[in-house]
Amino acid sequence: VRNRGQTIGEIAGRMISPRAKLLFLTVLALALWIVLAIFGLVIANIFALYPESVLSVWMAMPVAVAIGWWTYRGGRTLLIPSLLSLLTLYAAVVVGVYYLPIDLLQWLPAGSADGLWNPIVIWTLLLLAYCFMASILPVWLLLQPRDLVNSQQLYVALALLAAGVLIASLTGQADLFASAEPISSTIPADAPPILPFLFVTIACGACSGFHCLVSSGTSSKQISSEGDAQAVGYGAMLLESALAVIVILACTAGVGMGALQKTSVASSTVATAGAATSTTLDYQRVLGSDGQPLKGRQAWRTYYRTGDDGGWNQKNLAAFIEGGANFLSAVGIPLKLGVGIMAVLVASFAATTLDTATRLQRYVIQELGHSLHLPTQNKYVATSLAVGVGGAIAIFAGDKPGSGGLMLWPLFGATNQLLAGLAMMVAAFYLWRRSKAIAFLAIPTLLMMLVPGWAMTYDLVVNWIPQRKILLSGFGVGILILQVWMFVEAALVWRRARGVLEPQLEPLPVTAGSS
Questions:
Q1: In the 8-state DSSP scheme, what is residue 513?
Q2: pLDDT tens across 285-324, in order?
Q3: 371: phi > 0 → left, psi -120 to 50 → alpha, else beta; which?
Q4: CA angle 443, 444, 445 (to 5 degrees)
Q5: What is the dihedral of CA 181, 184, 186, 192, to 10 degrees?
Q6: Over the stretch 480-506, which tens digit does the pLDDT of each residue have?
Q7: Helix, coil or strand: residue 237
Q8: What does each C-alpha distance from 512 to 26, 177, 221, 300, 515 come to in angstroms?
Q9: Which of 364, 306, 312 has its CA nearest to residue 472?
């Protein structure tokens, strides 16, 4: 698999049927365009909300290229460039926080915030341009070293957050149990039922369709041996679960340490080219009616989402970033710098999803072109379609420019879990064709297909179609139809597949030095 670089779509075609391959690839294309539209806008919103994060996130690109060239062309070890890159990026965080926050509104004409060329749109276009380059360049030059840089940032930030949780709880600065209601007494009237929605709000963790795409499309091409797959794949799930626990604590106990509000002071300086305006950002505790900092459940409720339409909400993002900054303050990091570190963490983490999804979408479009004899097998054409359609959805599909992708947010969890169910079905076929036991896999496969489908159907019938949300309804109906169709294809082949091996691939050509 590593040498051939097979994706899950190709494997589905061999395990089930050629038509199942087309159906799977179509589901993947729709899901990945959702990911591109959503994550592009999420990062753009982080840049707009936290301009102090911009410098460090973009600095990672040239640093990654330097690391890739150093290790691949120079044949050197990663220790020195890894340490230097980590120091460089955290130095960039400090510079971005205290000296160079990049706020596009300072350079755009008045009234641009609500027009087509608003900061969200501009950042989204720049991010997609980066993704185009990351998709067509060799993986060792940009994508792989950038993931390395981001993983190091994640390790450091997780260690700081874990230390902050420990110190804040032991010193009484944070209440890990009472900052938020364990069982909410103020449930919004339009809240969906906990079953099935609990199981699609957890987008990754123990089972993730997107991780399945990454493992077959990119990870399999980068590991040295199959034995590394367990540490890479299972280790990623364990680390992501740890991150999820810290996110929950930051959004509850971290927020309970004190609600924050951003303050900005504009100052004018005269340069040789004329007058320029700069903005100094800072953060301070929100005060309650008694003049004391707002803490505990009162602080938590300032972030709690009520009365919205169930889509993406900036307050949810701010709760993690600012709650995490509160934890970092417990280890002596200034609040302002802590917000910058957390914003860079979230943006960098999302950027790895964005650029990887672009490369995966390129593979999917190329495979579809090969199967349907379309002129999309060229990597430049395929990548242009990937970022072009994703950008069009993100920018033009919403109520205002730069809101389309965020309207798709309710689809993300269910679509991700549906992909996991489909991938598990392919794995079940692999065992079935070899006359192996499959009950341990078939039962959770059905669960992973039924529960997300149930959640999406509920939203379609109760919310999206009655509210005439055309974009959500179109994607939801399309993905459900394709999923059911693929399940029918599998059922038709199931009985005669028992004990019959799938078509085997031709041997790989032997090259000099291979073993």
A1: T
A2: 888 777 788 888 888 887 775 444 444 566 678 889 999 9
A3: alpha
A4: 90
A5: 140
A6: 999 999 999 999 999 899 999 888 877
A7: helix
A8: 38, 62, 20, 63, 9
A9: 312
pLDDT of residue 191: 80
Give the integer Cα–Cα distance in Å for 200 and 195: 9
Tokens 């059905």 found at: 446
Instruction: Name the phi and psi angles at 418, rounded to 5.
Output: -60, -40
The answer, yes or no, to whether residue 469 has pLDDT greater than 60, is yes
Confidence band for 407, pLDDT divided at 50, 70 and 90? confident
- Under DSSP, the state recorded for 293 is B
Give the residue-averaged pLDDT of 186-212.
79
pLDDT of residue 267: 52
Give the bridge partners for 268, in sequence order. Answer: 277
The Cα–Cα gap between 396 and 62 comes to 30
Indicate if the alpha-carbon torsion angle 327, 332, 335, 339 is positive or negative. Answer: negative
Tokens 């691939």 label which residue? 505
- The helix/strand/coil state of 121 is helix
Cβ proximity of 170 and 337 under 8 Å: no
| Other beta carbons within 10 Å of 446 | 15
Q: Give the pLDDT mean for 262-286.
A: 60
Structure tokens at 285: 């505790």
Residue 20 · residue 13 · CB < 8 Å: yes
Q: What is the identity of the amino acid at 184? A: S
Share of the chain above pLDDT 90, in %: 43
pLDDT digits (tens, 9 = 90+) for 37-83: 989 999 999 999 899 999 999 999 999 999 988 888 777 777 788 88
Sequence letter at residue 419? L
Peptide bond before 62: cis, by omega within 30 degrees of 0?
A: no
What are 472's two structure tokens?
């959500």
d(CA 75, CA 96): 33
Question: Helices 119-136 and 379-396, interaxial angle, to 10°?
Answer: 160
**Cβ within 8 Å of residue 405, ≥6 positions away:** 34, 36, 37, 38, 39, 40, 41, 42, 390, 393, 394, 397, 398
Mean pLDDT estimate for the chain = 85
Q: From CA 361, how far away is CA 265, in angstroms rounded? A: 43
At 509, the pLDDT band (50, 70, 90 cuts) reads low
In this structure, what DSSP letter does residue 184 have?
A: -
What is the distance between the alpha carbons of residues 288 and 340, in angstroms, rounded to a whole number? 25
